[in-house]
Write a structure and sequence with these properties.
alpha+beta, about 20% strand
């Protein structure tokens, strides 16, 4: 018997035991990764929809102000446009744990027609100078793919008319 054969004796079924021990860990990691990816996607999708809504609101300019070099925003029209754009962009999202209309009504809009600064709920301050500024924030109720526990990320966006 050679030295290699004596140190590496074969035990039938040894790899089956290792696979049986590793399978639960690998399964938890795969499903945990899928849940994390789904949460990240949902957050990014809602944040992108909110960003588009704020951008549309920031560009709801009263063009007669350009003649005097003072572009302004009609705040009521800008907020309505932002809600409409947000509704259109959230239409296909299935992970909301609340009605879409309730989420849209909970969005906090700060519309500054002549620019200035808005303080977001996280404490960040956004300043735009004299350009019209729109800030929006919301914490949507989302449900997980694998868990029934809802979660509420704080989403904040700001857009300046450029």
């Amino acid at each position: 018997m050679s030295r290699a054969q004596s140190t590496h004796a074969a035990y039938p079924g040894q790899s089956l035991v290792i696979i049986a021990m590793m399978l639960p860990i690998v399964t938890i990691m795969v499903f945990g990764g899928m849940a994390l990816a789904q949460r990240t996607y949902d957050r990014m999708a809602i944040e992108a929809a909110l960003q588009h809504a704020a951008r549309a609101s920031a560009h709801a300019v009263q063009y007669r102000g350009f003649a005097a070099d003072q572009p302004t925003i009609d705040a009521a029209r800008a907020a309505a446009l932002g809600r409409a754009v947000l509704r259109a962009n959230l239409a296909e999202l299935n992970s909301l744990d609340e009605p879409m209309d309730e989420l849209i009504e909970r969005v906090e809009w700060s519309i500054l027609p002549r620019g200035g600064s808005c303080v977001l709920p996280s404490g960040r301050t956004i300043t735009s100078g004299s350009a019209p500024l729109v800030c929006a924030s919301v914490s949507p109720w989302l449900r997980g793919m694998l868990t029934s526990a809802p979660w509420m990320p704080l989403l904040e966006v700001a857009e300046v008319m450029d």
